[in-house]
Every structure is written in C-alpha cells, then in structure tokens.
Amino acid sequence: MAYFCLDNIYGIVMNKDRCLKPATDEECKKAWLALQDTLDVIGGKWKLVLIAILRGGKLKFRELSREAEISPRILSKELKDLEINGLVTRTVLNTRPISVEYELTPYSQTLSEMIVSMHEWGKQHRQRFKEQ
User: Whole-prediction pTM value?
Assistant: First the structure.
C-alpha cells in the first residue's frame, strides 16, 4: 500500500516538468529519513534556543548558560551535539581559569530559512489560539 508524503512529505513530488505526481514508497521513505535527520540534529527543547542566542555572537559557556537559563550539565550535552553536527565551534581561551567560547559556524546559516519559517508559523499558531 502506498502512502504519500510532501515533496515527499505531503504525498506529491514534482517531476522534471514541474507537474505533481503521487510519491512512491521509496521517495516517501527518503523524505521521512531526511525529516528524521533534521529532527535528530535540531530537535529537542534547547538546540534551537541555543542557536537563536548564538546568532547574536559568540558567548562563553557561563554566559550562554545564564542567557538560556539552562543547567551546565544539559548545556554541555546540547553544545556537544551541536558541535558534532557542525553547527557551533568551541574555542578554549588561554585564560586563568580556562574559559570556553562558543559561536555558530557558517554552516549554521543553512538553518536560517527554516528558523524564520518556524517563527512565522509560531506567531500564527499563537494568534490562532489567542483569538479563541
């Protein structure tokens, strides 16, 4: 049984003539894997919050912890995940005591369009429920 997905996720794909056609099971599977990869990298409560804060510039670990209101243990785990996925860089500063600074990588800019879209959707969603 075939199920559908847009541009693999909403059940249609565009062929080379830009016409819509039903997606195949294989196309849907690839689409859902891509969506799962995205959620694995930026999903969860903190990753997008940290990315949004770091868009303002580099911050030291403690500054970032205070700004995000996140415990150091959770912050450390989230930053490691973001670093592994190439979204932030970690720089150990030659200070006493040693401090560590984090900043977004150029690769993190590839998330900008999605973040803006999510922000717009969130505003619409909030407004929808505010009116009820």
Answer: 0.76
